[in-house]
Specification:
- The chain has 218 residues and is α/β, with parallel strands linked by helices.
- The chain is built from seven helices and seven strands, in the order βαββαβαβαβααβα.
- It is globular and about 50 Å long.
Length: 218
Amino acid sequence: MTAANEPVSVLCFGDSLTWGFKPGERTRYGHSIRWTRRLAKALGEGFYVVEDGVNGRTTVHEDPMRGDKNGFAHLATARKAHMPVDILVLMLGTNDLQSRFNMSAGAIGSAMSRLIFSACQSTDDPHGQPPKLLLISPPPLGDFDGSPLACMFCEKSIAESKKLKDVYAALASQYGAAFLDAGSIVSVSKVDSVHWDADMQAPFADAVAEEVRKLAGV
């Protein structure tokens, strides 16, 4: 863990929702807008926030078409690259809802369990301590009628997305992690029914900051 007088290290590990994908434009929100940078500003100098969001990242799936999207395969390396990590903010699952993976919310929860178990293990950190964990369930998907992403998702995707919060809440309880339901704070953009508009970024950052402070004990 972080040495005395050093800022609390916070690793935000996720997909395009963490990267800051701007719906409809395939570009990234700037530092003054996206929630991860707003989180850093809200937390202040006592914290160091690291962004690790990859567009299309899944919990455990290899992507034969797009490649290099397996979150489980990435997580240990990310932790080692940014160690010491005091707090891990983990938000994945949206891409697992794609039609081609054909996963239920329960199956996605089982996959997420692998990541959480990995996160609970010590790394090469000199102190050998795993980070505290904030598990976030992504908000439910929207209606894909007219969405540029309609070819990637289906009605089952929407239905299962609404079940993730309960599945993730149970996982957080099982592993002693903090939990946040993103869907209680933000809603997906009507532009593509997956990503978030600019006005969703600040309230979400504030909610995450509140949970991170609790985990840090400040």
